[in-house]
Design brief:
The chain is an alpha/beta fold. Helices cover 49% and strands 9% of the residues. It has 20 helices and eight strands. α6 (156-164) crosses α8 (197-211), α10 packs across α14 (308-323) and α16 crosses α20 (410-424). The longest helix is centred in the middle third of the chain and has 21 residues, at 249-269. The model is unreliable at 5-28 (pLDDT under 50).
């Protein structure tokens, strides 16, 4: 184990221009400063190839890390595409790029290849950036850095305030970014999101280094940057909110048919599926199995604001599900690989349940000692898998190999192996 144990336990987290994060706020002697305007003003939105070429040249000639952010229209549009990309780099200033007008930003991505990209909650933005040709080879995630350093609040606004002593205005985070033209207040907000991101990165790097966790963070960032795109989710309709109420296979078929019909309509209209038909309405129809449009219209979610033609298309989906043969009905649950739910362990394998209980307690204590969330120390799924099927011979080498086989990073293997060896070792009666 490293000296991070002693560092985290012996001294409070120090920050630049703010109170320790365990106080959760800014300095008692210095009030945080509102950040109202980007230092060079609001840049024009880049919406043509000529202007984009100038930005690419400027950012390629810049120096140091590049701050990157993206705005989506979640809840308004279908999918998770980017509707604005913000960048800032020393020597280049801030750029706001419209990826609708400039849908291929691969030349910009190429120009920044090898440069460290600074993002906040990188895994949220990387999929939409990848779609437009922007893929980092190196990154620094300020949200993840905050978690590893033990900050209790890791949203961008909270981090900027507690670490740097500035207040970001966050009033436009959930607006419809597909709006054109984008209002000036929204553009100001977007530019400010990258204004201090590199400064935050620099302060967090120092804090992680002080705690002996900087190499751990680098391993985490490398894992994010090198991760392949996620596989498409199997049976996404099963994630419909309220599915726990749906028990019978015929009802499951109704959920599936309504979900798939809604998804096709939402994709065609480029609107959020929830704006086409709510999850609660889908579940309501599945439970009721309405026999007619009139019966469907009486259900919650299919009221007076739903037109006759729409009601007919939803009823047609219900009827298709009701007409399926037994062989074509969905099974009650997803095929699950790996261990069963922990609540079933005591009945299925009491020894495994005891191992899991001991492992959880050990991981919790270690995470507290290291001042970081348990899930960042090691994923709960990894702990469950190792406890359900432990190595035949429990020792440091075999447990470390098992953790690495489940994707744990070297620093996690080093820290967690002693805890799991203790939890997995047979106890004398």
């Amino acid at each position: 184990m490293t000296d991070a144990h002693d560092t985290a336990a012996d001294s409070p987290l120090r920050t630049t221009g703010g109170a320790p994060p365990d106080d959760g706020g800014s300095s008692a002697t210095e009030a945080p400063i509102p950040l109202l305007e980007p230092r060079e003003g609001i840049p024009p939105v880049i919406a043509d190839e000529t202007a984009l070429a100038r930005v690419i040249a400027a950012f390629e000639a810049g120096s140091g890390p590049v701050a990157v952010d993206a705005e989506r229209a979640s809840g308004y549009r279908y999918g998770q595409r980017a509707y604005l990309v913000q960048l800032r780099r020393e020597g280049a200033g801030t750029a706001l790029i419209d990826p609708v007008a400039c849908p291929d930003l691969s030349a910009l991505g190429d120009a920044l290849s090898g440069v460290e990209w600074v993002l906040h909650a990188a895994t949220q933005d990387l999929p939409c950036l990848r779609e437009i040709g922007m893929v980092p080879t190196r990154l620094f995630d300020t949200e993840l850095a905050g978690r590893l350093a033990g900050f209790p609040r890791v949203g961008l606004g909270a981090m900027v305030e507690s670490v740097l002593g500035f207040v970001l205005e966050k009033g436009h985070s959930a607006v419809d970014w597909s709006t054109r033209p984008l209002p000036e207040p929204w553009l100001r907000y977007a530019a400010l999101d990258v204004e201090l991101l590199v400064d935050l990165r620099d302060a967090l790097e120092k804090e992680l280094d002080r705690q002996g966790k900087l190499e751990w963070a680098h391993q985490e960032f490398d894992a994010i940057a090198s991760a392949p795109p996620p596989e498409p989710r199997k049976d996404p309709w099963r994630r419909t909110s309220g599915m726990h109420k749906v028990r019978r296979r015929r009802q499951l078929a109704v959920v599936r048919e309504l979900w798939q019909t809604r998804d096709r309509i939402a994709q065609r209209r480029d609107v959020s599926p929830g704006k086409v038909l709510g999850d609660a309405a889908i579940v309501e129809a599945a439970l009721a199995l309405p026999a007619s449009v009139q019966a469907l219209a009486a259900l919650n979610g299919f009221g007076h604001r739903v037109g006759k033609r729409q009601l007919e298309q939803w009823q047609a989906a219900v009827d298709r599900a009701k007409a399926l043969s037994e062989a074509h009905l969905p099974q009650p649950g997803l095929s699950v690989t790996g261990p069963p739910p922990p609540r079933a362990w005591a009945d299925k394998d009491p020894a495994a349940a005891a191992r899991l209980s001991a492992a959880r307690a050990g991981v919790s204590a270690l995470a507290e000692q290291l001042a970081m969330p348990q899930e960042n120390l090691i994923t709960p799924d990894t702990v469950r898998r190792v406890c359900w099927e432990p190595p035949a011979v429990v020792d440091a080498e075999s447990v470390a190999a098992a953790l690495a086989g489940h994707g744990a990073r070297p620093w996690q293997v080093e820290q967690v192996t002693p805890v799991l060896v203790e939890a997995l070792s047979p106890k004398e009666a």
